[in-house]
Amino acid sequence: MRGELKEPMGPIFTDAERLLDAAGDPLVAVGDVVTYHLERAGVLPDVAVVDGLTKREEVADDVAEGVARLGGETREVRVENPAGTVSRGLVEALRDAISDPEPTLLVVEGEEDLVTLPAIVAAPLGASVVYGQPDEGMVLADVTDESKAEMRDLLSRMEGDSDALFEILDAA
User: Residue 97 in 3-state DSSP?
Assistant: First the structure.
């Protein structure tokens, strides 16, 4: 499945303002660098999911500082999610954050790399999920019936209890 996960789920942008012109509502940002670029463009994502890492290395100080600025403007929730997994706690926190009208910063202890998949399933139609494509830019994934079905298919093929995962996501 690695090959499927490497393919961008939408157009790639290198300019945050152009991305924002095309983005839906609510806006979910996945990743520290993406969140930083949106913050620098003056946008507070409805949900931002960060783990302090980019390409498995600690983010640069300016990125960490940009993300930290959001912490003062959002509700902050800490959640554990081991690398290469989608934990129950992460999915519950993500579902709650998307349904909460208050902006939320989800700080992941572990890794947030796979959170784009359940974020697309949990977000309402018309929303956008933005995530980083390493060394290329930011991917804008529109939440549509088709994208939700594709993410459900990917998640159902991963190890673990996908029925329990979908129960949590569908409870929003």
Answer: helix
